[in-house]
Design brief:
This protein is an alpha/beta fold. It folds into two domains: 99 residues, Alpha-Beta Plaits; 154 residues, Rossmann fold. Helix content is 32%, strand content 31%. A seven-stranded mixed beta sheet has the order 10-9-8-11-12-14-13, with helices on both faces. A four-stranded antiparallel beta sheet has the order 2-3-1-4. Strand 11, helix 9 and strand 12 form a beta-alpha-beta unit. Helix 5 runs parallel beside helix 6.
């Protein structure tokens, strides 16, 4: 089957604005190639990456099925100042080519995230999380996922009840299970993400403790309360989320947020404070923030 491949060109390390624009317009099937991100990972784990590094600008690649939707998105992006190009592509290209950019990532000293198609021999004491995520939902290489994972490790409690909002591939829900959470709810508004998460959660052996639900937070969760809530989503969505999320947090619970560039962190901090949430910890890595809050 033939598709249209639309590419947005960005400066290295500066794809967030374009990614936000795509998500706001309900475009989720894309992947990012970014030399800055690859260089950052290489600095920490040079043995895990391919021999030839990407150079030049970053690109966001979107796969579209019809000429009409391609033309519409192309025009919208151009009108808003993005550098964009289009070419014809095939189904096999879209399904398989993106996999070359997925990496093995060591989240903590004992937790490793591994794409399902890559080989890895665990060291003594390591736990390996295996993902077959699909191009749209990531495999844990980004700083935002790693920030959430480290904060989960720090703030989990015995018998933690956890909620992961915008679960995507299910990676944070699985990490929660690996770190000892006993009851997990994972939600996403995207039905494809939900099915992907279910597959990954089952593959890693946590289906019995993790309930994956499709829909809006208020519709999915009802009046349930949680000890730990995670959300690794773009800033604009987090700002909306903050209006409601406190009602799902136990009095001594922890809310972990990521997906936040440092230059926009003040927006989240102000919105959280306005909703009666107190900052417990802030982490920053390569301009990406992870935040932990509790009820003030």
């Amino acid at each position: 089957m033939e598709y249209f491949e639309l590419k947005i060109e960005c400066e290295p390390g500066k794809t967030e604005e374009a990614e936000n624009y795509l998500v706001i317009h309900d475009v989720y099937n894309y992947f990012v190639t970014d030399p800055k991100l690859e260089a950052d990972i290489m600095a920490e784990m040079p043995w895990l990456l391919k021999d030839e590094r990407d150079v030049g600008n970053a690109f966001i690649t979107v796969c579209l099925e019809t000429a009409a939707e391609t033309e519409e998105l192309f025009s919208l992006l151009q009108e808003n100042g993005f550098s964009v190009s289009v070419r014809g592509a095939t189904d096999s290209e879209w399904k398989d080519n993106w996999k070359q950019f997925a990496k093995i990532v060591k989240i903590t000293d004992t937790l490793v995230v591994k794409p399902a198609w890559l080989e890895y021999e665990p060291k003594i004491g390591e736990k390996v999380l295996e993902l077959d995520s699909g191009a749209a939902f990531g495999t844990g290489t980004h700083e935002t996922t790693q920030a959430c994972a480290k904060l989960i490790c720090k703030y989990k409690k015995e018998h933690t009840k956890m909620l992961d909002i915008g679960t995507g591939s299910g990676i944070l829900a699985i990490i929660g299970g690996m770190l000892g959470a006993k009851d997990i709810v994972a939600t996403d508004i995207d039905s494809v993400a939900v099915e992907t998460a279910k597959i990954n959660i089952e593959k890693n052996g946590y289906s019995s403790i993790c309930d994956v639900r499709c829909g809006d937070l208020l519709d999915c969760v009802g009046d349930e309360k949680f000890d730990l809530i995670t959300a690794n989503i773009i800033v604009d969505v987090l700002l909306i989320l903050l209006k409601d999320v406190k009602q799902f947090l136990n009095p001594d619970g922890i809310l972990i947020l990521s997906g936040i560039l440092e230059e926009r962190c003040h927006e989240i901090l102000d919105a959280a404070q306005a909703q009666g949430l107190q900052l417990v910890e802030k982490t920053v890595e390569n301009d990406w923030c992870g935040l932990a809050f509790r009820i003030a």
